[in-house]
Amino acid sequence: xxxxxxxxxxxxxxxxxxxxxxxxxxxxxxxxxxxxxxxxxxxxxxxxxxxxxxxxxxxxxxxxxxxxxxxxxxxxxxxxxxxxxxxxxxxxxxxxxxxxxxxxxxxxxxxxxxxxxxxxxxxxxxxxxxxxxxxxxxxxxxxxxxxxxxxxxxxxxxxxxxxxxxxxxxxxxxxxxxxxxxxxxxxxxxxxxxxxxxxxxxxxxxxxxxxxxxxxxxxxxxxxxxxxxxxxxxxxxxxxxxxxxxxxxxxxxxxxxxxxxxxxxxxxxxxxxxxxxxxxxxxxxxxxxxxxxxxxxxxxxxxxxxxxxxxxxxxxxxxxxxxxxxxxxxxxxxxxxxxxxxxxxxxxxxxxxxxxxxxxxxxxxxxxxxxxxxxxxxxxxxxxxxxxxxxxxxxxxxxxxxxxxxxxxxxxxxxxxxxxxxxxxxxxxxxxxxxxxxxxxxxxxxxxxxxxxxxxxxxxxxxxxxxxxxxxxxxxxxxxxxxxxxxxxxxxxxxxxxxxxxxxxxxxxxxxxxxxxxxxxxxxxxxxxxxxxxxxxxxxxxxxxxxxxxxxxxxxxxxxxxxxxxxxxxxxxxxxxxxxxxxxxxxxxxxxxxxxxxxxxxxxxxxxxxxxxxxxxxxxxxxxxxxxxxxxxxxxxxxxxxxxxxxxxxxxxxxxxxxxxxxxxxxxxxxxxxxxxxxxxxxxxxxxxxxxxxxxxxxxxxxxxxxxxxxxxxxxxxxxxxxxxxxxxxxxxxxxxxxxxxxxxxxxxxxxxxxxxxxxxxxxxxxxxxxxxxxxxxxxxxxxxxxxxxxxxxxxxxxxxxxxxxxxxxxxxxxxxxxxxxxxxxxxxxxxxxxxxxxxxxxxxxxxxxxxxxxxxxxxxxxxxxxxxxxxxxxxxxxxxxxxxxxxxxxxx
Length: 893
Ligand code: B3K
Ligand code: ZN
Description:
The protein is α+β, with helices and mostly antiparallel strands and 893 residues long.
C-alpha cells in the first residue's frame, strides 16, 4: 500500500533508462523462514540518456543487509532507501553494485516476487515483481545477462531451477546443495524465474529444424505425474508449428515448465522456465474437460511462442504490452485453428470479444490497445490489450495476406532481436516489408471504443448493380470524446439463390477464371463509403463480416428469412453461426415483447425448424451443430441490450429460459434421438472426432433438462457411467439445476466425496454451484466460502467460486436487495491487502453499473463503500475510482 492517492504513469513521460545493466549475478540462499538475495550488478551509464542526478533502483518489501559500490560501503549521506527503492547520489559512469537483501517468501500472499506455494518456492515477476526480490532497474528496457546461484536444503528442495542452462551442481555442508544457471540471452527482469521444490518431472526431447537437441521437462508434484503428457505433446506441436509458420526455432538446450497451485493468472513465459498455473498445464480425462484440454494446448503454445514474440524481442515499456500479448494471442489462435477447427476457434474468439471486450470498451475502464496511462500496470492485462490487440494483428494479416504478413514478421524479428521495442516498430516492420503505409491503420493502437458499422444496400434490377453503403463511427470513451475513422477490413460474400455469387466491383473486369472470387475484403477508411458490385443476376443477401474480419459491431436490417438463408447456405462458417445467433436474438426479443405486453410468447417456427435441421443426422459436423444450437449467453445478451440503452437482466434471463424450455418441448423427440445417436465413446480421448459428438449430446441434454424426467433419467445414467469430466459435469449440472433438492444435494455431495482429493475437479464443483440458478444462490456461495474446499489464498478457488458467481450468474449477482454486490465487495475487501491483483480483477462485474439502469445506485453504493476503505491497494483504488469517476452514461450509437 503506497500513498493515499497513487499516481498515474504516463506514456508521454517515457525516458530511456539512465543506466544499463549488461550483467547480473544473483545468489539465493533459501530457508524456510527467510531468504537472502545477494545481487551483483554491473551498471554502466546509458549513452542514450542525458538524465543526470541520483540513480533510483526499484525495491519493495526488501530489508537491506549490505550495500557495496565497487567493493566499498558508500558514505551514509550519499545514498538512501525508502519503501519504493534505493537512491544513489552521483553514481560513477560504470560500477559494480552489490546488495544483500532479506525477504520473506512465506509471508508473500500477493504471489508477486518470490513466494511459497504448497511448500515450493516460485516466482512471478511480470510486470513489476522483480523489485520484491532485489534492488534493480525493474523496467523491460533494461536487459541483462543473468547468472543465478541457488542454495537450498537438498532433501526438501531437490529441484532448483532458473532460466537458461544449468552449468553446475554440487553438495554443500549441512545437507544443502547449490545449483548454478546461466542464461546467455539478455532479458528484462520480468522474465527472471526461480523454482525450488520437491518435484517430479516428465521428460522428452525435441530436435529443432536447425539440429539443436532440446531437453523438454515438465515439473509437477509426484501425484500429478500422469497429468503432464498432454502439455508435453502440445509443447512439441507448438515448437514445430512455430518453425513452420514463422521460421522461429528454440534457442536453449532445455525448456522447462513448472506447475504451481497458487498462481495469479494462467501461466508465465519466463525465459526457458515457464511457470504454469496447475489448471493450465495438468490434464487427464478424469480431471479435465474437453475445453480444458484445448485450453492447456493453447496456453502451452502461447507461452512457448513468447520465446520470440516477447522474450527475444520484448517491450520497451508496459504501455507496449500488446506488442507481445496481442501478437502472441494471434499466434496461438492460428495455432489452435490449424490444429483443430478454424471455424469453432473463430466463433469462440468472436464471442469473447463481443461479450467481454466490447463491454470493457464501453465501460468506465475503456482504454486503447496501447493505453496512455495507468496507475497499476497489473490492471492492464485486459481483454483489450490481449484480445482486441490480437484482432488488430489479425487485421494486418488480412490486409497484407499470409505472405506479406510473414515477410513483416521476419523483418520484425531480424531487425529487433535482443531489443526492447514499441508497437510502432512492429507496424514499421510490417509496412517496410510490404512497401506500404500503415500510418492510418495505427490508429487502432491509440483509439479506445468499439467501432460501429452501419450497412445499407440498394439493388438496381435493370443494371444488375448492387451497392453497399457502409458508415463507421466509434463512440466516445472516457478521456477520448472524438474519434477518427479507422482502417477496417470488411470481408464479405453475396449469397444468391444458387449459392455464393461471383463478385466484380464497378470498374473491374469480371474475372471468370479466378476460382475464389466469391469472397472479398473491402477496406474501409472513411466515415462513409459505397461499393457497387456489378453483373449480379439477382438481389443477393449480403454475408457481412465474414470470419469476424474486424472487432466491430455491425448492423444491417436482416429479415429473418435472410438470416435463415445465411445460416444454411453461406460459405463462411462464422457467418452461418452468426446468422443463427441473430435469429435466436430476434426470437428472444419476441418473448420479451410478449412478456412486457402481458401476452403468451410463441416460439418462432423458423427458429424451431432451423434447430431441428441442426439436429438432423445429415448435419455434417456435430461440433458446429452444438455451437449453433447454443443460445447466446446471458452476458452476450446483456451486452447487446446495454448497447441499445440498458439491460433488464431479469427479463433477459426469463426470456432465455423460456426459449430454452420452448425449444426443449418442441424438439424433445429429436433431442432424445440425437443424444442416443451420440453415445459416449468406448474410451475417452480429447480428440475432435469425440469432442464434437460429446458437445452436441451435452447441448441436447441442456435443452432436455427442461423436460422433467426425460432429462433427469438421461443425466442420472450419464453421471453413473461417464469415464470423463466433461460428461460428468454436464450430467451433474442437469441434476443440480433441474432435480429436486434431494437429488441436487445427493448428486453434489456424491461428486465431492468422489473427487475431493483432486483440487482441479473441486474447482469445477465450486464453479458449477456458483452458477446454479437457484433462489438461494447468494447464500450457497456464501456458505461455500466456509467449506473446507475453499481457500481465499488460492486464486483458482476464488475465481471458481466468487469470480464465476459475479461474472456468470447474472440474475443472482444482480439480486434486487444488493446481496450479490455485498458478497463480492466483501471478498474484494478481504483480498485488498492480501492479494491486490486478484482483488482488483474480481471487481470487473461491479464496474459495469452503467449497463444495468435499475441497479445503478446499489452498485455504485458498493463501489463507494470500497472507495472509502482505508489503505486501499493501488490496484483496487484504480478500478474503484475510475469506475466511480464518470457519472453520466456514455453516448450510445
Ligand atoms: N505474460 C503473462 C501475464 C503476466 C501477468 C502479470 N500480471 C502471461 C501471458 O500473457 O503469457
Ligand atoms: Zn502472453
